[in-house]
Design goal:
The complex is a heterodimer of chains A (194) and B (617). By secondary structure, chain A is mainly α. Helices cover 80% and strands 0% of the residues of chain A. Chain A contains 6 helices and no strands. The termini of chain A are far apart. Chain B is mainly alpha-helical and 617 residues long. Chain B has a single domain, classed as Cytochrome C Oxidase, Chain A (Up-down Bundle). Helices cover 61% and strands 2% of the residues of chain B. In chain B, the strands form 2 sheets. Chain B has a two-stranded antiparallel sheet with strand order 1-2. In chain B, strands 3-4 form a two-stranded antiparallel sheet. The mean pLDDT of chain B is 92. Classes of the chains: A mainly alpha (194), B mainly alpha (617). Chains A and B meet through helix 1, helix 2 and helix 5 of A and helix 9, helix 10 and helix 11 of B. The complex binds protoporphyrin IX containing FE and copper (II) ion (CU). The site of copper (II) ion has 5 residues of chain B, from helix 11.
Amino acid sequence: MNVAIREQQTQTRNKIHPLLFATLLGCVSITMMFMAWTSAYIVRQSAGNWLEFRLPTIFFINTAVLLLSSVTLHSSYFFFKRKKEQLYKGLLVLSLLLALSFLAMQYIGWQQLFDMGVALDGNPAGSFVYVLSGFHALHIFAGVAVLIVALIHAFALKFNVSPKRKLRFKLTLVIWHFLDFLWLYILTFIILQS
Amino acid sequence: MAATNLVKPDYDPALLIEEQGYEDHFHDHHHGDKYQSSFITHYIFSQDHKIIAKQFLITGIFWAIIGAAMSIIFRLQLGFPEESLAWLKPLLGKWITVNEAGIGTLDPQFYYALVTMHGTILVFFVLTAGLSGTFSNLLIPLQVGARDMASPLLNMLSYWFFFLAGVVMFASLFLSTGPFSGGWTAYPPLSILPQASTGSGAGMTLWTVSLVLFVVSVLLGGINYITTVLNLRTKGMTMWRLPLTIWAFFVTAIIGLLSFPVLASAFFLVIFDRELGTSFFLSDIYVGGEALDRVGGSPILYQHLFWFLGHPEVYIIILPAMGLVSEVLSVHARKPIFGYKAMVYSILAIAFLSFIVWAHHMFMAGVNPFITNIFVVFTLIIAVPSAVKVFNWITTLYGGNIRFNSASLFAIGFVSMFISGGLTGIFLGNSAIDIQMHDTYFVVAHFHIVMGIAAFFGMFAGIYNWFPKMYSRFMNETLGKIHFWGTFIGAYLIFWPMHYLGMAGVPRRYYSFEGFDAFSHFDDMNKFITVSAIIVFGLQILFVVNFFYSIWKGKKVTSKNPWGATTLEWTTPITPGHGNWPGKIPVVHRWAYDYGKDGNEYIPQVLPVSEDESEAH
Ligand code: HEM
Ligand SMILES: [Cu+2]
């Protein structure tokens, strides 16, 4: 190959921002953690002595809440870029409220599970549901912290669509969408397996 | 190829960089000095990758001394059970029992604790953090032409999580019930039931906490390494121009990113079983004649999860060593690495295969024999890319104008160790042979030679070679050579006899063979191994002395590129400051292995390809 052409090829630099890329890698490693649990689930389930039960409906309602929060956060980002300050802030607050209600409703879901007779220290079928949804909730907690930081940025700093703040918001968005995706993965997995 | 005819470069690469480097306005902002102004921010909470590398290295050395000293203590008990260990009482206290005759022996419980700690410390703290942490940090930004890591903050956190993991593990050594004693693999039920043994109580709790912190450290580091390699390469540095060190660190980080979270998953389930009464890994257990009410779990499940990390982990340990060795061999043989692309593809192949062979650690655990056969096949296939690498190293050396110094000797020693240990891996990989060999000293010999010693050799090669870049001084060559020859011969003397022990069926992790008549003729061999181990330990102390002495008193480096190497780190000032290059960052025009090309002794990566040059990479 011609040296000059090769030289030019080598100068096209990566377009994705390094921090965004690093965030995505973090998502990959968290996914691996959950995939380990779901694989363990399959292995353990195939060994028999497995309790069959239905998830309480609230977990499905909750899924809608979480998906909605992703939509509101994404719209907030959309309006942020278009300099619609009020919509941006309002939707951001709404997203946080939805996130908090997701956590509260997961807690109610666990109580209903427990009342059904599915305890954490009972049959592993139940323990796995608690582990999967519990660790997901822990990650949502972290996600809520990220949202709160975004909120502080929104209300404490002067409104300004700078590249830096766009990037920050984008990272928040990616993290939040990922947590959504993670929950969908867990839920579909549990449904398909039972 | 006669070296005398080759032309040494008569230009200064630093000037080349000033002429046609890339201006990124790094030094306009002075953000470097902001967090480097005080002693604390410079040396302790530093975000500079070069300092963080030294922190990883010195912490690693600290742990290596502790871990190795532990092995000497349990080897003394094993090799010389009749001799008195009473002199260790000031150090070990109640773990030494002195009988009426005044003979002190090591408490069996503590023997297991020492074996467990030795394994955990060496595998995770020394050969993972100390090796990959040190050299990924030092070399990735320097060799890809970056100012620092993608996220210096996460990088700093990575070190401090490692440090914290160390503090917790260290604290567990002083528990009155002793540290965890169920083996570095932490199989249940020993790792779950506090009543199983003394170390399974608080010792195991601290062990899990420590390792969860450690996983966080590895992930933060790995995310940074991958991002930096993919996003922060300088102009002209294509993936196919990366030095093999970087390829190795890069792939290592990917393996870690995919496998360490799985280990964390396993540990979290262990924690649930321990603290919250679940039964993921427990079933049908009798303690003191009474059935435990915890049923429904599967201890094999833990083994699957553990070895899904555990096997990739051994490659996380060896790949960085392979990368360092490839680079050191090429530099000191003054020849391009043979089969560069084959080297890269074999790293990728090994990485891929490492994820589908884990059950070869479980041949004897009651896994379905059909599945076992599949794992046998994949396991044996790993020998192919491994052999490719070995052939390429040997071919790189062949006909080279080799400089025999401490760095290159350790690199050559690595190749020898990797061959010896790899061959026994092929025995073990056959499940039929493994029926006899599993959990014997044969396995101990296998993995110490192929992983323990080989990875240490890679690390030593790296330290001797890059010490001038780290501390602007050389290590003492004479001491280095004594260190090499003593360790090389000594390591074989320790581990070669273990193969025979293993073939005779001597089990590993036993406190004493007193009750086994069949093994009584091995007493002398065990003494021999212990004596060799003590001598080799002494030689490592020599290394540590040389290391610290040379930091302050070593021969000063007087030129930027003492080894005549092509890679970018040798174009920085002798003591590189924050941001690595004082002005522009270098632009790369060729691969890293132009040695002896077109009559040139070597050509740095920053030199543009000239019109009349033969084919350039
Ligand atoms: C040709 C390549 C290799 C093959 C076929 C192979 C095969 C095996 C097998 C089958 C075992 C299990 C033995 C048993 O417990 O009964 C084993 C153990 C082990 N191997 Fe290898 N191995 C190879 C290379 C390596 C390398 C390169 C490393 C590390 C750098 C390594 C590290 C280990 C370790 C640490 C263990 C023991 C773990 C333990 O039980 O504590 N092996 N190997
Ligand atoms: Cu393995």
